[in-house]
């Protein structure tokens, strides 16, 4: 279900989410010429959970919760401290911390099996049809992600996405993680467009908030049905999958 949160708050709270239509009024910020995607909006991370269940069947949930939390905490802390390490290293460090915290024996084989899953990811079922449809309508596409270039290229190869993305933008380029403005600036520098012409598609609520604060119109693919982050700003639009992105852009185009 697609909801434009700004219009929802102003005019349709009483109607509720069920059956809400795309609002009829759109501002110039919806003149979208290019779209930048967070990696997890396209690449399905669930195989990492499955691998954790194979490696630590009795403790997988605890491990994944702590690993995932530390993974992103370390990106933010390293950005704040000016001690950048790429996302592969951060992910490995977070796994080490999580295993030690839970007193799990992280052998070399177990570490390799868990880490290598990030190089085996494929797309969510709705991602490829959406990307092809966007490409056919003339939208310029990019990844804009904390992933390393190797992680992004592995995902592109695994899912047969070669030729779909004009730019593959890793935060390695600027050595600062999202939600740093330096990370989001990569989209403007690559596409050479105004930020209002670049739609950012987020997977995480904090990323949607960061991109919106930067000035991008932002589409939050809220696959996990999470609440909006309490950061004093909301995404331009929200849906539970990428199918709604096509409909939203079409509606925006008709309204301009």
Key features of this structure:
256 residues, alpha/beta, Rossmann fold, DNA polymerase, domain 1, 2 domains, 10% strand, disordered N terminus
Give a description of the structure.
It is a single chain. By secondary structure, the chain is an alpha/beta fold. The chain folds into two domains: 5-43 and 122-255, HAD superfamily/HAD-like (Rossmann fold), CATH 3.40.50.1000; 46-119, Orthogonal Bundle (DNA polymerase, domain 1), CATH 1.10.150.240. The protein has eleven helices and six strands. The chain has helices at residues 5-11, 39-42, 46-55, 60-81, 87-101, 108-116, 127-136, 149-158, 181-191, 205-214, 243-255, and strands at 34-37, 140-145, 167-170, 198-202, 218-221, 237-239. Helix 8 links the parallel strand 2 and strand 3. The longest helix has 22 residues, at 60-81. It is globular and about 50 Å long.
Q: Would you identify the CATH architecture of the largest domain?
A: 3-Layer(aba) Sandwich
Largest sheet: 6 strands, parallel
Number of domains: 2
Which fold does the CATH topology of the largest domain refer to? Rossmann fold
Structural class: alpha/beta
Question: What's the CATH class label of the largest domain?
Answer: Alpha Beta
State mean pLDDT (0 to 100 scale): 88
Number of distinct beta strands: 6
Query: What portion of the residues fall into strands of 2 or more residues?
Result: 5-15%
Unreliable stretches covering 5 or more consecutive residues: 1-29
End-to-end Cα distance, whole Å, is: 22 Å
CATH homology group of the largest domain: HAD superfamily/HAD-like
Percentage of residues in helical conformation: 40-55%
Gross morphology is globular
Supply Rg: 19 Å
Helices and strands, in N-to-C order? HEHHHHHHEHEHEHEEH
